[in-house]
Design a protein that fits this description.
six-stranded parallel β-sheet, elongated
């Protein structure tokens, strides 16, 4: 991290918030409503990270006892109905068990005080994202909250990162993408930013580390001192 960093971009689920329980509950409520086999929390948390559509498709296939790369066993209309039910249910139950990760609120204060601009690039719908940020009192820190509905291509495509950096007025070489999955690290690489991997998140750690992030963290809060140290070194 030899470059002076002016902007920090974060994924949401598994980085800012631990939302696995609420997401799993919403998926299982949807499966139950459509008379399909419900799945374990441990299994469902591995499906998070590629957007709601991919989450539901994976849940449907697994519920039917099929591999994740099998053809979808329901018609498109049915899949859309399940997806809508899931989104409606999750929006109404998104902050039941969800919590901020340790130290993250304090890290935001430190980054703001240091003049670091911040954004979020997530495959989560924007309306749910904004509600969660407001609930935890941290919306004010993010000048560019970019949800799945704001871009044409989801992560690991770099679209959301480019959009966020344009809003924040920073170039990729001045930014770092903080995530917990291969989609986050891949998107950062594709955009030309630095990347930081969070091992305490929800994503597949092996797949994430295979993307060779620039730095590895426990929780996302650790990015604040890392940026301070990097910027101090860049001044010398």
């Amino acid at each position: 991290m030899a470059t002076k960093i002016k902007a920090a971009l974060f994924d949401c689920d598994g980085v800012i918030i631990n939302s696995a329980a609420d997401i799993s509950d919403a998926v299982n409520a949807s499966l139950k409503h459509f008379r399909m086999t419900q799945l374990s929390y441990a299994k469902l948390r591995t499906f998070v990270g590629n957007g709601a559509r991919a989450l539901i498709e994976r849940a449907i296939r697994t519920s039917k006892g099929l591999p994740l790369d099998a053809p979808l066993p329901v018609e498109e209309k049915k899949c859309q109905e399940i997806l809508k039910y899931y989104l409606d249910y999750y929006y109404s139950h998104a902050i039941i068990k969800t919590k901020l990760y340790p130290g993250f609120a304090d890290a935001l204060k430190s980054l703001e005080a240091a003049g670091i601009k911040m954004g979020i690039v997530t495959n989560k719908p924007t309306n749910i994202l904004l509600e969660i940020l407001e609930y935890f009192g941290i919306a004010k820190y993010f000048g560019a909250p970019i949800g799945a509905d704001k871009v044409k291509n989801l992560k690991p495509a770099p679209d959301g990162i480019f959009m966020a950096l344009k809003v924040l007025g920073a170039s990729p070489s001045q930014a770092i993408m903080v995530g917990d999955s291969y989609t986050d690290i891949g998107a950062g690489h594709a955009a030309g930013t630095l990347t930081a991997a969070c091992l305490k998140g929800m994503g597949d750690k092996k797949a994430m580390l295979a993307q060779k992030p620039d730095i590895v963290l426990g929780y996302a809060a650790e990015i604040a001192p890392a940026i301070m140290l990097a910027n101090l070194a860049a001044q010398r």
